[in-house]
Structures are given as C-alpha cells and as structure tokens.
C-alpha cells in the first residue's frame, strides 16, 4: 500500500515559511545582540570595579602604613553614593606572620557583610562573576612592596534590571515585526496564489469539459506568465491534435472500407498460393527422401569399397602365395615320382616355401587385424564401469606403454596436468583414445625425428574435463579435413593406414565416454583435437 502523505495549500505553506524564517532570524539576531550587550556591560562593570579598587588601594597606602583605620573608614563611606559598590575590605600585611589580616571594611546600606577573603586572594586577583555579584582583589603597593590588599564586591541588580527590560523590549519588537511580516506575507500570498488558483480552475474545466479552446490569462508575475504561456501552447497543440485525429479517423474509416475489399481479394490469392506451396513442399519432401537415400547408399558404397580394398589386398596376396606354393609342390612331387629330385632342388623348394608361408601368415594376420579394427569400431563399449583415475598417471602410463612406437619419431611430449587431478571415467576407452592420437601423430604427423613436439593439456571446470591434444607435425591434408572422422578416410592408403583410427576415436569419445571431440580445422600449423568429457555426479566437488 502506498504511503499516505499529508497535504497542505500553497497559501499556508508560504505564510508558514515566511513566519518561521522571520521568527528564526529575529530570535537569532536578538539572542546574539543580547548576549554581546550583556557581555559588554559586564566588562564595563569589571573595568569600573578595577578602577575603583586601584583608587582605594592608592589612597590606602598611607593609612595602612601608619595603621590609621579611622581615616580610611571615613574615606570608604564616600562610596555610599556609588550603587555599584556593595562591600569593601582592606587587608594589611602583618609584620610578624607576613600574612594579610583584616584592617577595615565598608558595607553599603541594606547589604549584609561578607566573610573575609584573605584565603582567596590569589583566586580573586581575576574578577569572579556570579549571577548577582562581581568580586575582585587588588594589591596595595608602596615603593614596590605589597602592604595589603583591597577586596571590592559589586552588585549586578542594575545589570539584571537592564537585561529584563531589554528582553521585554525585544519581545514586543519581535511581536510587532511578526505581525507586520504576517500582513506582508498575506499580501504576497494573495498575489501568487490567486493566479495559481485561476490556472487550477482552468485545468479543471479542461479536464472535465474537454474545453481545449480555453486559454490562461496574463498576470503580473513572470514565472506564472511562463507557466501560463506553456499551458496555452499545450492546449493549442492538443486542440490541433484532436482536430487532426478527427480527420484521421475519417480517413481511416474510408481506408478500412477499401481495405476490406483488398483483404478479400488477397485472401483468395493467398489461399491459392498456399495450395501451391503445400504441393511444392510435398514434392520437396519426396526429393529430400530421395537425396537422403542416395547419401546413405553413397556412404554405404564408400564403406563397402573401403572394406573390400583393405581386406582384398592381404587375401589376394595370400591366395597368390598359396597358389605359387601349390605349383612348386606339384613340381617337387613330379620330380620325386620320377626319381629325379635333387638336394639343391629340394633346398630351393624349402626356402621358397618358407617365404611363401611367411607372406601368407603376414597377410592373413593383416586381414585379422583389419577385422579386429572393424569390430572395435562397431562393438558397443558401454559395458565397462566407471572408475576414479588420476589423469596425470593415466597419461604417463599410456606414454610408457607406447614408448617403443614413440621412439621411431622421438617427439618431445609435454604434459600440462595437475598431479592431483582426479576424474571418474571409463579407463579403457580413454586409454584407447590417447593411444590412437599418439599413434596418428607418429604415423601421419611427423616426417622425421627432428624437432617433433606433442603437447597434452588437461583442465577441469565446474561441468566438464577438457583434454587439448596438439602436435607440431605437418597437419591434416585439406582434402580430408571435413571428413576426418569418417571411416576409411586416410592419406596412407596402401602404406598401412586403414582410415579407421579417427573414426574409432570419435565413436569412443561420443558413445563410450559420452563426450564430444572437436578438430581445429582453422589451425595453420600442426594438428589440434579438443576432447570434452562431462563430469559424473561422483566427480563433482
């Protein structure tokens, strides 16, 4: 609920503000003036008492010196004509104890005597001012020696009366000024508030009756005239806008009538166009299905051609060797039956047989390896369970297991991985991925064993593990960059490359490990693969 705020009128606010400011200024001015005046009056009284005390001390030099108390008492009576003086004490210095003792005193009429101040001489050397009295002590000095002291006490009755009288005058003056200011404020308020009331009445009329032709009149106040001019401009623009709106409504009405006719015509045309579009879309779906089937058949043909090429070569060599071996065996058998077989002929047959059998074995073994590679690509490896492994140790173990393969090209392998980095994953597929990447660098990436480098960077964030694999080899040929993860794609066809390595990496990362692998085809030098593996619930901190 919005907070309710108290409301007030500009009339009350103006009068209240003027009266408050005036009262504060008067109070502050009168207070400061009274304080300074009272302070000055007290200084004058203190100065007057100092002068009287010095006169008394000067006159008392002889009487104190000659112990003439009567003369001094007669002289002190002359102070009865000074209302300011209430009490006077004269103290003489005792020659034996060298301490001040009472000598004589004066008390004004209707003024009780005061106790001796011989113990307060040091404190009263500076004037002491209370609410009703001022006290001070002056030394009596004769030829440089202190012969006694004069204590004088003055009353502040006249000062207090003066202060009270001044306060009354200030109060009456304040009331008079406030009344005068009130009437002046009323006059100013009328000059300001009346034009504002007229503007308010005008706005109410415009709001209720929509009388936008009304205009505000000029006044004798510049600011209100500016407001009235702005209001008149706004009313003029509003009136013009309303007239334009009426004209626009009429035009819109006419346009709507013609628009309805156009909409009907366009609707008919659109219906016909939609029918044509549906027919076209149906035809496109048919073409699309044909294209998909064609691509499937092309991919299947490429895969079959790759399998046939890879398997036919070792099988063909095996068949050729076995045929040659059978022919040699027939010759030996014929020579044996005819009893013309010689030892050299038998020796040559045995040597050729061993070579042919070795060739058959190697090619059959090659065919078996190819079939095993096909099975690794196709077999689902989801059956392996996850386990927590130290990534640095895993990479080090893979490097150790491939030490013999790496020595061929002797690369400098740099591993950027924390020795404390633990990760839950399927160890077998991840090892195969790393082994395949290292094997690709050795076989395809490096030409010789000079200045070869492999850099493996492993980092972990809140949601995944990122493996950045990079080698500074010759890179990937442009012709296969876009198809690097397809099966049977290789630049080493006929040189021992089956084209299944990166396809195997892709399947292991995306299916067995549930991650993604990215090939940086924009790199100008070397080869970079970025593998991202998701964190399991147990791997999360």
TrEMBL record:
One of its GO terms (molecular function) is kinase activity. It is an enzyme of class 2 (transferase). Residues 306-537 form the Histidine kinase domain. Residues 190-243 form the HAMP domain. The keyword Ligase does not apply. The chain crosses the membrane at residues 12-36, 167-185. It is found in: Membrane. It catalyses: ATP + protein L-histidine = ADP + protein N-phospho-L-histidine. This is histidine kinase.
